[in-house]
Design brief:
Strand content: 5-15%
Shape: globular
Number of strands: 7
Radius of gyration: 18 Å
Strand order of the largest sheet: 3-2-1-4-5-7-6
Order of helices and strands: HHEHEHEEHEEHEH
Number of helices: 7
Low-confidence stretches: none
Helix content: 25-40%
């Protein structure tokens, strides 16, 4: 009987397929980046994934978020993401944490049970707290820097936080990592200079600009990084 991951197994081998299947992953954020990370990890055959988000889908998500469509506007992203994941692989064990993660509610999540953590959220205090907890428990983590206002997806790179440049969020994170004795951190960031944003007339406040492919490609690059890190011992 065929399995949906048979073609993946041809590429990486049965032992690596088993290793992926049994890994337990935690994803913070189900937006353009995090939703695409989840999509890739489910389709590669990982069967234990927990997801954290407190947002609902709205019409502005339709231009870039893989889980968003007109039918699920107003629904919780965690619920929609779980339904999509289980529609791809009904065997998946997926737990939703419908919360806005902050240091004050960090105890809601037991970090010690995860093999890899993916940070795809925007709140800086939460990002640092997640990174510190992973460092304390020696859990691998990759953190996404800014993908808004980016047009050239070929400018994305994965490197250590202290090797980043250009990205405003990465600059803030470098400072905070140093202050919190975080000596290294895998991040995805863009070397692209900030694009000029066309702000509507009489608008004093606007969200970051975005286009379909940049957050999706960023998410896929993060997923690739995690997948290769998990299987590297068996390659």
């Amino acid at each position: 009987m065929e399995n949906f991951y048979d073609r993946t197994e041809l590429l990486i081998g049965k032992d690596n397929m088993t290793k992926l299947k049994n890994s337990h992953i935690l994803i913070f954020g189900l937006g353009g980046v995090g939703g695409s990370v989840l999509e890739a990890l489910v389709r590669v055959g990982i069967e234990n994934i927990d997801i954290v988000d407190n947002d609902t889908i709205n019409i502005t998500n339709l231009n870039r978020q893989i889980i968003a469509n007109y039918e699920n506007i107003g629904k919780k992203k965690t619920i929609v993401a779980k339904e999509r994941a289980m529609a791809i692989n009904p065997k998946i064990n997926i737990v939703e944490y419908n919360l806005f993660y902050l240091p004050d509610n960090a105890n809601c999540i037991d970090f010690s049970k995860y093999d890899y953590v993916i940070d795809a959220i925007d709140t800086i205090t939460a990002k640092i707290d997640i990174i510190k907890k992973c460092q304390e428990l020696n859990i691998p983590i990759i953190s996404c820097m800014g993908t808004g206002n980016k047009l050239d997806a070929t400018k994305f790179e994965i490197c250590d936080i202290y090797s980043t440049k250009t990205c405003k969020l990465a600059k803030i994170m470098r400072k905070l990592c140093k202050e919190n004795n975080i000596n290294n951190l895998d991040v995805l960031y863009s070397t692209e200079e900030r694009n000029n944003i066309i702000v509507p007339d009489n608008s004093t406040k606007h969200s970051p600009a975005s286009i379909v492919y940049t957050p999706i490609i960023a998410g896929m690059l993060i997923a690739q990084h995690v997948i290769l890190k998990i299987i590297k011992d068996n390659k």
